[in-house]
Amino acid sequence: MGIVINYRGRLKSVDLIEPFCSELKKIAELMEWPYTIIDEDFEKPTDARLEVSNQGCEIVGHLALKGINLEAPNGCSSVGFLFDQNGFLRDPIEMVGQEPFDNENPPFAFVKTQFAPADIHIALVKLLRYLGGKYFQLFEVIDEGEYWETGDEELLKEKMAFLSQKMDAVSQALENSHLGVEPGDSELDIIAKIDKIFREMMNS
Fold first, then answer.
1. For 33-149, where are the E strands, in sequence order?
2. Quick one: how many helices (H) and strands (E) in the chain?
3. Which of 89, 130, 145, 191 could form a disulfide with 156 if both were Cys (CB 3.0 to 4.6 A apart)?
4. At what angle do helices 118-135 and 153-177 cross, to 10 degrees?
5. Alpha carbon of 89 to those of 33, 64, 98, 118, 155: distances in Å?
6. Is the pTM of this model over 0.85?
């Protein structure tokens, strides 16, 4: 649950990766957004995998990607522009899954803006529109806040407020539910109990 901007595309040329990253780096510095440059070897096969530890999940190994990650402020998730050797935007998590890549229907990357102010969402949409027009031969955006499609700031704010209210209601329901999680409960048991609470909320 949350407002997400989904985006996918392919650069006009792989040779544009370096100028793309250079310009986005300058934009990030002007906006005072932290960034990370990724410059892996395209010639080395991808062997990355997901490792889970007490500290969380981490991608380890080699990802044959080049590009830049931006860290937008105020609760927004990171914004990745990472490209494979053919100039397609790629999501590292999708690559770790090692699913066959479909050139005709590539997967979306995404950024979640639900916990950020509406102006961050708007800035990201404007950035995507600029980058898409300048650097990409194919570019598609699906904005769950509908700002990309409509330019309607009030509609975006209404959607963000509505989802925020629903998430607060779910959080409160979980706090009041006394889930009754037992020491021997599996993850599936806990998910089933949470699902029961959601169904009760919807039927109340």
1. 35-39, 49-53, 56-60, 66-70, 79-83, 109-112, 136-143
2. 6, 8
3. 145
4. 120
5. 21, 12, 15, 25, 29
6. no
Burial class (CB in 10 A: 0-12, 13-18, 19+), 8: buried
* Bridge partners for 68 per DSSP: 37, 81
Angstrom distance (rounded) from CA 113 to CA 116: 5
Amino acid letter, residue 126: K
Using alpha carbons, list the distances in angstroms from residue 127 to 28, 32, 141, 153, 193.
11, 15, 12, 16, 41
Tens digit of pLDDT at every position of the chain (204 positions): 468 999 999 999 999 999 999 999 999 999 999 999 999 999 998 887 777 767 666 777 888 999 999 998 877 889 999 999 999 999 888 887 667 788 889 999 999 998 888 999 999 999 999 999 999 999 999 999 999 999 999 999 998 887 666 555 555 555 565 555 556 666 566 666 666 665 665 565
Q: Which amino acid is at 86?
A: N
